[in-house]
Amino acid sequence: QAFKYDIEKIIESTDLLEWTTQSLPTYLDIRFSNICNLACRMCWSWYSNSRIEIDKRLRNGWYIPVSNGVWNTPKFFEEKLIIHNLKYLYISWWEPFMNPDQLRLVKMLVDQWRSHFIHLTYNTNLTVVRDEVLLPILHYKYVTFIFSCDGYKEVYEYIRIWGKWAIFLKKYFFMRKFFE
After folding, report:
1. Which band of pLDDT confidence, cut at 50, 70 and 90, is reported for residue 11?
2. What are the CA-CA distances from residue 177 to residues 96, 131, 149, 171 (Å)?
3. In sequence order, what DSSP letters do the residues of 15-72 get, joined into one string?
4. 147 has which bridge partners?
5. CA nearest 107: which of 74, 131, 130, 83?
6. Residue 103's CB: how many other CB atoms inside 10 A?
7. How far is CA 60 from CA 4, 65, 118, in A?
8. Is the pLDDT of residue 92 over 80?
9. What is the pLDDT of residues 162-180, one digit of tens each?
């Protein structure tokens, strides 16, 4: 539904034989790194750097390393990705609020007056949310949060290694109050 009005324009500007298009991206799903503060049982080191030592022990030293290279975010997006047509921005993997690149991107879009046209979605474990990472989000047209929570109380703490149910609830109610 979200892209139904764009489809005809995209098809018209696409050379199907050459696999090229003149259309600018309208949706961006970005995952800056595998930096995460939890080591969830269903996860592995590719997605969470907190799982590296656990995965090494469970798999006799085998794990998949992921580069946590730092991007020059504003330069990367100005030169590599054309953001002027974005309508949807999805930020995840795995705790985006721990990564300074996501905050730089969100602020850059605010500074460029693009945020008023973008539906921003975060997928977060909700454990490190603070005022300074939420303030730029207030400038976006629409904001959606997906909270990673697979149970409550003891089940939550069992699944989300190092996660604390009381902290999750505290951050959840903080978010509700912040966006009232």
Report:
1. confident
2. 21, 11, 19, 10
3. ETTTTEE-PPPSEEEEE-----S---TT--TTT-GGGHHHHHHHTTT-------PPP-
4. 124
5. 74
6. 19
7. 49, 15, 45
8. yes
9. 999 999 999 999 999 998 8
Contact 87, 24 (CB under 8 A): no
Is residue 58 within 8 A of residue 89, CB to CB? The reply is: no
CA distance 59 to 63: 7
* pTM for this entry: 0.79
Question: Residue holding tokens 């030169």?
Answer: 79
User: Token pair for residue 138?
Assistant: 């207030």
Longest dimension (CA), the chain: 56
Q: Which two tokens stand for residue 52?
A: 């590296």
Residue pair 113/158 in contact by the 8 Å Cβ criterion: no
For residue 142, which phi and psi values (nearest 5 degrees)? Answer: -135, 145
Q: Would the pLDDT of 23 be above 70? A: yes
What are the angstrom distances between the C-alpha of 97 and each of 30, 78, 102, 120, 174?
A: 13, 22, 7, 14, 15
Note the pLDDT of residue 69: 45
